[in-house]
Amino acid sequence: MTKPSYEEVFSYCETRHPTVDPVAFFLHYETNGWMVGKVPMKNWRAGVANWDRMQQTRNGGNKYARQLPETFAERDDRATGEAAARIRSRLSGNHSNGGEDRQTLFGNEDGPTHHRPRALPSAGD
After folding, report:
1. Are the C-beta atoms of residues 41 and 34 closer than 8 Å to each other?
2. Residue 59 above 80 pLDDT?
3. pLDDT score, position 64
Protein backbone atom coordinates (compact mmCIF):
# COMPACT_ATOMS: atom_id res chain seq x y z
CA MET A 1 0.00 0.00 0.00
CA THR A 2 1.21 3.47 -0.76
CA LYS A 3 0.86 5.83 2.14
CA PRO A 4 -1.91 8.41 1.51
CA SER A 5 -1.39 12.12 1.91
CA TYR A 6 -3.46 14.07 4.39
CA GLU A 7 -5.30 15.73 1.48
CA GLU A 8 -6.36 12.32 0.14
CA VAL A 9 -7.63 11.21 3.54
CA PHE A 10 -9.42 14.54 4.04
CA SER A 11 -11.20 14.45 0.66
CA TYR A 12 -12.17 10.78 1.09
CA CYS A 13 -13.57 11.44 4.58
CA GLU A 14 -15.51 14.48 3.37
CA THR A 15 -17.14 12.57 0.51
CA ARG A 16 -17.64 9.06 1.88
CA HIS A 17 -17.38 9.22 5.70
CA PRO A 18 -18.16 12.79 6.82
CA THR A 19 -18.35 11.87 10.51
CA VAL A 20 -14.74 10.66 10.62
CA ASP A 21 -12.19 13.20 11.82
CA PRO A 22 -9.53 12.97 9.09
CA VAL A 23 -6.87 14.60 11.27
CA ALA A 24 -7.31 12.02 14.03
CA PHE A 25 -7.28 9.12 11.56
CA PHE A 26 -4.24 10.39 9.66
CA LEU A 27 -2.19 11.21 12.75
CA HIS A 28 -3.04 7.91 14.44
CA TYR A 29 -1.81 5.79 11.53
CA GLU A 30 1.05 8.15 10.68
CA THR A 31 2.47 7.69 14.18
CA ASN A 32 1.99 3.91 13.93
CA GLY A 33 3.74 3.70 10.55
CA TRP A 34 0.45 2.70 8.86
CA MET A 35 0.45 -0.57 10.77
CA VAL A 36 -2.63 -2.35 12.11
CA GLY A 37 -1.23 -4.11 15.13
CA LYS A 38 1.92 -5.77 13.79
CA VAL A 39 0.67 -6.01 10.20
CA PRO A 40 1.05 -3.28 7.57
CA MET A 41 -2.24 -1.69 6.52
CA LYS A 42 -3.40 -3.01 3.15
CA ASN A 43 -6.19 -0.56 2.32
CA TRP A 44 -6.43 2.82 4.02
CA ARG A 45 -9.95 3.47 2.62
CA ALA A 46 -11.17 0.32 4.35
CA GLY A 47 -9.36 1.61 7.45
CA VAL A 48 -11.41 4.82 7.31
CA ALA A 49 -14.63 2.79 6.96
CA ASN A 50 -13.64 0.64 9.93
CA TRP A 51 -12.69 3.75 11.95
CA ASP A 52 -16.19 5.15 11.22
CA ARG A 53 -17.84 1.87 12.28
CA MET A 54 -15.85 1.75 15.50
CA GLN A 55 -16.80 5.37 16.29
CA GLN A 56 -20.47 4.45 15.91
CA THR A 57 -20.03 1.56 18.33
CA ARG A 58 -18.10 3.58 20.93
CA ASN A 59 -20.08 6.82 20.76
CA GLY A 60 -23.64 5.57 20.36
CA GLY A 61 -23.89 6.56 16.70
CA ASN A 62 -22.44 8.92 14.14
CA LYS A 63 -24.16 12.01 15.49
CA TYR A 64 -21.66 12.00 18.37
CA ALA A 65 -18.57 11.03 16.41
CA ARG A 66 -17.03 14.51 16.15
CA GLN A 67 -18.61 15.90 19.29
CA LEU A 68 -16.43 15.86 22.38
CA PRO A 69 -18.09 15.91 25.78
CA GLU A 70 -18.28 19.24 27.54
CA THR A 71 -15.73 19.55 30.32
CA PHE A 72 -16.64 20.66 33.83
CA ALA A 73 -14.75 23.92 33.29
CA GLU A 74 -16.65 24.66 30.06
CA ARG A 75 -19.98 23.86 31.74
CA ASP A 76 -19.08 26.05 34.72
CA ASP A 77 -18.04 28.95 32.46
CA ARG A 78 -21.26 28.65 30.46
CA ALA A 79 -23.44 28.48 33.59
CA THR A 80 -21.65 31.45 35.17
CA GLY A 81 -22.05 33.50 32.00
CA GLU A 82 -25.75 32.63 31.75
CA ALA A 83 -26.34 33.53 35.41
CA ALA A 84 -24.50 36.84 35.04
CA ALA A 85 -26.51 37.73 31.93
CA ARG A 86 -29.75 36.82 33.71
CA ILE A 87 -28.89 38.99 36.72
CA ARG A 88 -27.79 41.89 34.49
CA SER A 89 -31.06 41.77 32.55
CA ARG A 90 -33.10 41.68 35.76
CA LEU A 91 -31.18 44.57 37.28
CA SER A 92 -31.53 46.71 34.17
CA GLY A 93 -35.23 45.91 33.82
CA ASN A 94 -36.57 46.78 37.27
CA HIS A 95 -33.70 48.75 38.89
CA SER A 96 -33.63 46.50 41.95
CA ASN A 97 -30.57 45.93 44.08
CA GLY A 98 -30.30 42.24 43.22
CA GLY A 99 -32.01 41.07 46.41
CA GLU A 100 -34.43 38.84 44.51
CA ASP A 101 -31.57 37.12 42.73
CA ARG A 102 -29.72 36.66 45.99
CA GLN A 103 -32.84 35.17 47.52
CA THR A 104 -33.29 32.88 44.52
CA LEU A 105 -29.70 31.70 44.73
CA PHE A 106 -29.25 31.44 48.49
CA GLY A 107 -32.77 31.19 49.89
CA ASN A 108 -34.55 33.39 52.35
CA GLU A 109 -32.72 33.51 55.69
CA ASP A 110 -35.85 34.87 57.44
CA GLY A 111 -38.20 32.26 55.99
CA PRO A 112 -39.18 28.95 57.51
CA THR A 113 -36.74 26.09 57.31
CA HIS A 114 -38.07 22.74 56.24
CA HIS A 115 -36.77 19.65 57.96
CA ARG A 116 -37.16 16.10 56.90
CA PRO A 117 -38.99 13.88 59.42
CA ARG A 118 -36.70 11.70 61.47
CA ALA A 119 -38.74 8.54 60.94
CA LEU A 120 -41.38 7.42 58.52
CA PRO A 121 -44.89 7.29 59.98
CA SER A 122 -46.08 3.80 60.81
CA ALA A 123 -49.05 2.16 59.05
CA GLY A 124 -51.25 2.68 62.16
CA ASP A 125 -50.86 6.50 62.12
Report:
1. yes
2. no
3. 47
- Residue 77, CB-side half-sphere exposure with 13 Å CA sphere: 5
Domain extents in the chain: 6-64
The pTM (predicted TM-score) of the whole model is 0.48
Name, in order, each residue with C-beta under 8 angstroms of 14's C-beta and a sequence gap of 6 or more.
Answer: 22
DSSP summary character for residue 41: -
pLDDT 10s digits, 26-51: 999 999 999 999 999 999 999 999 99
pLDDT at 97 over 60: no
How far apart, in whole angstroms, are the C-alpha atoms of residue 109 and residue 102?
A: 11
Query: Do 45 and 12 touch, CB atoms closer than 8 A?
Result: yes
Strand, coil or helix: 118 = coil
* Residue 4 to residue 43: CA distance in whole angstroms: 10
Dihedral, CA of residue 57, residue 60, residue 65 and residue 70, to nearest 10: -130
* φ and ψ at residue 19, rounded to 5 degrees: -85, -10
Residue 73 has pLDDT above 80, yes or no: no
Conformation bin of residue 107: beta by default, left when phi > 0, alpha when psi is -120 to 50: left
